[in-house]
Amino acid sequence: MANLLDQLAAMTVVVADTGDIDAIKQFTPRDATTNPSLILAAAQIPTYQELIDRSLQESRALLGASATAEAVVAETLDEICVTFGKEILKIVPGRVSTEVDARLSFDTEATMAKARKLIGLYHDAGIGRDRVLIKIASTWEGICAAEQLEREGIHCNLTLLFGFAQAVACAEAGVTLISPFVGRILDWYKKSTGRDHYPGPEDPGVVSVSQIFNYFKTYGYKTEVMGASFRNIDEIIELAGCDLLTISPVLLDQLRSTEGELERKLNAFDPAPTEAQFQLDEVHFRQMMAADTMATEKLDEGIRGFCKAIETLEVQLAQRLAEI
Question: In the chain, which stretches have pLDDT less than 70?
Fold first, then answer.
């Protein structure tokens, strides 16, 4: 009998959720995603110091000898994300997701400017827009930025998505892909209720992604759904058939090591019954978010966490710059 990973890959696009290039090589994902925390983790691996140094040197050369260390580090943040992205694209046949600085999450214009710069860096490296997704936090400002970027042919992956309002707003904006965070939703409910275990079908993150998937497919939205942030393989099993699932190397290995029959749980051609279709403007979006304590708290926590990872990476880059 085939292992669970092979069966999953036959019904869902499997994406590697890591910045560790060597880990990606161990599996056969179509796409890969990164975020500030994953880049920070990868930057600690000695194997990748050459990539870090290269990004610092290229940034310093680009800005000139008179550039301050702060300016070089700021430029390197963009360079390093694209450098890792380029290396990943040598391995995966599909797309890589590269994230906009989370500190811009509430600034539409700055988010668009950063997205255009990242796409420009990929373009300069000979990589087309069809192979890159720009990751943007699912704030109202981020969704508005993504809507305009999509019109420009820049494809977006809306991340830090926890609530139904965020998902519907993204679909209405015509974004390419959303990444609802399954495991972080589960974390919130376990802490909130004191319940330490949820069976797969009852997992609040699984329920949320299933609701989003069925709504999108029922009403013909083109936005792809990519479940993310998994805590265990039971969550993944319950979302078999989702458009995409981005999975950490640890859980990919568990799936590959586990045999058994994998049942399709989500079907784009036969979605489960869902609620009536509705549209969102900014007022209704903010009202729905205000009423969704979990989504509001986890969005804020996620942005703060990514900001902290970026700031930590900046400190490390400054230290490394002084040494080379």
Answer: none
Q: Tell me the two tokens of residue 246.
A: 């981005």
Q: Domain for residue 323, yes or no? A: no
Q: Is 128 exposed, middle or buried (0-12, 13-18, 19+ CB in 10 A)?
A: exposed
Tokens 């729905």 found at: 288
Domain annotation covers residue 33: yes
**Tally of domains in the chain:** 1
Catalytic residue among 86, 114, 135, 217: 135
Residue 290, SS3?
Answer: helix
Contacts of 300 (CB under 8 A, 6+ apart): none
3-state secondary structure of 244: strand
The residue assigned the tokens 């950490």 is 248
Q: In the numeric block, which tokens belong to residue 317?
A: 């880059």
Q: What is the structure's pLDDT at 40?
A: 82
pLDDT digits (tens, 9 = 90+) for 95-113: 999 999 999 999 999 999 9
In a domain, 104, yes or no: yes
Contact 172, 223 (CB under 8 A): no
CATH number of the domain that 21 lies in?
3.20.20.70
In sequence order, which residues have a C-beta less than 8 Å from that of residue 12 and are 6 or more positions away?
Answer: 239, 240, 241, 242, 243, 244, 245
pLDDT of residue 19: 87
Give dist(CA 192, CA 271) in Å, integer: 30
Distance, in Å, from the CA atom of 131 to the CA atom of 143, rounded to the nearest integer, reads 21
Q: What is the pLDDT of residue 219?
A: 98
Instruction: Please work out, in degrees rounded to the nearest 5, the angle formed at the alpha carbon of residue 222 by the alpha carbons of 88 and 114.
Output: 50
| Residue 178 phi, psi dihedral angles, 5° rounding | -120, 150
Task: Provide the residue range defining the domain that includes 45.
Answer: 4-318
Residue 123 to residue 127: CA distance in whole angstroms:
5
Residue 324 lies in a domain: no
| Residue 298 a catalytic site member | no
